[in-house]
Amino acid sequence: MFHHNNNALEDLNILGYPNLRIIPDCLYNLKDLQIGKCENLELQPHQLQGLTYLTSLKITNCENIKMPLSEWGLARSTSLKTLTISDYHHHHSLLLPTTLAELSFQASRICNPWLPVSPKAHLS
C-alpha cells in the first residue's frame, strides 16, 4: 500500500481498511493524518512520536488500538493543533501539547465522560 520513500507526503487519509494492521514508519512529513474504520490497526508509540510536523490527527473506529493515549507522545508535539479521537475505550490520563487548539473525544465507546487529563496540560 505504501512505498518506503514517502518523504513528500503531507496529507494521508486511510479509511475503511478493516484488515490493515500497521502503518509504515516512513511518513515523517505528514501534517494531516486521518485513520478511520481500520478495526485491526495496531499503532506503536514510535509511529506517532516520529510525526513531528503533524498539525491534525483524527483516529476513529479503530477498536484494536490498545496503546494508551499517554504513550502516544502527544505532549511532546510542537505542531499538533487538532486532535479528534472516537471509539477509543482505554481510559488513561494524558498530557496534551500546548499547541493544541481543538480537542474532540467522540462516541459511546468512551464510557467515562470525564476522561482524566493532566493539570499540566492546557488548551490555548
Automatic annotation (TrEMBL):
Protein origin, superkingdom: Eukaryota
Name of protein: Uncharacterized protein
Organism in which the protein naturally occurs: Vitis vinifera
